[in-house]
Structure to design on (277 residues):
């Protein structure tokens, strides 16, 4: 069998990961939701969490999207340095998204930023595709459909190095100001350091991290403070505002301290597929 990966494999893989991400909440997210539901002391919050879990089960059983906002498809593609491809990988992903939009179906979410003219689910820079080069000859495609309600509550601020002690307060205040708008319980992805744009990318990767990866002390401290705000599931009050705080770091310029916060809603959709070269 040939080691060459062909365009049609990528198109089919994109449809497959999008279908899985949109219809099946990842196991670690579902477990986290069940665990907070069982611990929740507020009866309204417990009802909200039960409704979220029931909705996720129904979506999986019937293979339909778990939320009407099927999001912006954000792709992270690990390309093996020895992978053999002779086509435009990004274009193949766009073709896969266009087909998935019809077949799953997905809500056509792409519009021109100023005219608001809708172009389906593809457009200039849409979907968002990020490439990393890794050892080997495989291609791993991960998709994270990102809902507008949660994305809109994301914030980036350029601190000066002398303001380092304000970073924790900034993270808590961002979640507090977001309130119920990002459909809690949320995952708080934080990117600290890098450049302006790098910190935002780190924050998104932090929001993508599995929830069963243990937290460090700072992540745990922030999670406890956020949950003491009492915003609760869907903003109706309760013990559970966030499921997790994940922080990614990068070294930054001596005069800079970028901090980005990317908020993910309860519909923390993600799925991956590996094409073997
Ligand atoms: S923020 Fe998430 S759960 Fe809320 S409407 Fe958007 S995609 Fe759906």
């Amino acid at each position: 069998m040939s080691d060459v990966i062909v365009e049609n494999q990528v198109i089919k893989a994109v449809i497959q990961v999008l279908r899985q991400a949109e219809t099946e909440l990842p196991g670690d997210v579902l477990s986290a939701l069940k665990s907070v539901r069982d611990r929740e002391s507020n009866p309204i919050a417990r009802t909200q969490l039960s409704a979220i879990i029931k909705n996720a089960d129904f979506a999986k059983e019937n293979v339909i999207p778990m939320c009407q906002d099927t999001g912006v498809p954000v792709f992270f593609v690990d390309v093996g340095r020895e992978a053999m491809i002779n086509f435009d990988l990004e274009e193949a992903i766009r073709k896969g998204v266009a087909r998935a939009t019809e077949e799953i179906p997905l809500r056509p979410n792409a519009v021109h930023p100023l005219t608001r003219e809708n172009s389906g689910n593809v457009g200039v820079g849409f979907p968002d595709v990020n490439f990393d080069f890794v050892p080997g000859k495989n291609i791993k495609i991960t998709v994270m459909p990102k809902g507008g309600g949660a994305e809109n509550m994301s914030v980036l601020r350029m601190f000066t190095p002398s303001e380092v002690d304000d970073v924790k307060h900034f993270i808590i205040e961002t979640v507090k100001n977001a309130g119920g708008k990002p459909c809690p319980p949320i995952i708080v992805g934080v990117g600290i350091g890098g450049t302006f744009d790098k910190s935002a990318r780190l924050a998104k990767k932090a929001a993508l991290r599995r929830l069963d990866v243990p937290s460090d002390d700072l992540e745990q401290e922030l999670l406890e403070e956020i949950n003491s705000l009492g915003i609760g599931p869907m903003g109706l009050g309760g013990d559970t505002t966030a499921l997790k705080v994940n922080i990614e770091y990068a070294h930054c310029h001596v005069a800079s301290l970028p901090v980005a916060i990317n908020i993910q809603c309860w519909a923390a959709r993600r799925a991956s597929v590996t094409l073997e070269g």
User: Anything to note?
Assistant: The first strand starts at residue 72 and ends at 80. The beta strands are 72-80, 128-134, 139-146, 155-159, 186-193, 242-250, 257-264, 271-275. The first helix runs from residue 7 to 23. The mean pLDDT is 97.
